[in-house]
UniProtKB/TrEMBL annotation:
The gene is adk. Monomer. The lineage of its organism: Bacteria, Pseudomonadati, Thermodesulfobacteriota, Desulfovibrionia, Desulfovibrionales. This is Adenylate kinase. Its EC number is 2.7.4.3. InterPro entries: Adenylat/UMP-CMP_kin (IPR000850), Adenylat_kinase_CS (IPR033690), P-loop_NTPase (IPR027417).
């Protein structure tokens, strides 16, 4: 089973991806790992990519796509879940052409839908419990609202991650994701338009539901 997953930061994409990965024993491939494998491993493509990165430039798609394809073709027997790529419509077109040319079958494309303001609040509302990182607290999600200023599970002290409060960085990432003309949503819609004729299923999930609701809807549709 080969799956492509789209969703903005704050949509729970990582959580849902991990659940699907676990259930179907897939290789979870996120874009960072692709660069690490090639650049860390010193492959020809990795060396070329590094030259661009060292100059502070974006790595061209002509280098990135072959790296992605190489990683996808060297996964375990049960297939892969690709997360964080493609990010633009051009990358989507090139990835689709490359998959076709190499005879790699795509089975599902998942899109987690979430309004931009909600996604931003979810990130900025996250609170960490001093006693246990797994105690979920978010000041903007009713189901896991802290009790007063304290952890809703154990009453421990709460803090927030600096990354989660960096509004400019969140906006920048969301600018790319929510761009329906050339950005990541455009890439997602590119696959949505292909789905009927290209032989894979496009699954839309309502990101405003609870983790369990989203999970149940997803699992019911993956066969
Ligand atoms: Zn706690």
């Amino acid at each position: 089973m080969n799956i492509l997953i789209f969703g903005p930061n704050g949509s729970g994409k990582g959580t849902q991806g991990s659940l699907a990965k676990k259930k179907y024993d897939l290789d979870h491939i996120e874009s960072g790992a692709i660069f690490r494998k090639h650049i860390g491993g010193g492959t020809e493509l990795g060396k070329k990519a590094k030259e661009y990165i060292d100059r502070g430039e974006l790595v061209p798609d002509d280098i990135t796509i072959p790296m992605v394809l190489d990683v996808l073709k060297n996964t375990g027997p049960n297939g892969w879940l690709l997360d964080g790529f493609p990010r633009s419509i051009v990358q989507a077109q090139k990835l689709w052409e490359a998959l076709q040319a190499d005879g790699v079958k795509l089975n599902y494309v998942i899109e987690i839908l979430l309004p931009r303001e909600v996604a931003k609040n979810r990130i900025m509302g996250r609170r960490l419990c001093k006693n246990d990182n797994n105690h979920p607290n978010n000041i903007f999600i009713d189901a896991i609202k802290p009790s007063g200023e304290k952890c809703r599970v154990c009453g421990g002290e709460l803090s927030s991650r600096a990354d989660d409060q960096d509004e400019a960085a969140i906006d920048k990432r969301h600018d790319i994701y929510y761009d329906t003309k050339t950005g990541t949503l455009a890439a997602s819609y590119y696959f949505k338009n292909l789905a009927d004729t290209a032989g894979f299923k496009y699954i839309e999930l309502d990101g405003e539901g609870s983790i369990d609701d989203i999970k149940n809807t997803l699992m019911a549709q993956l066969k």
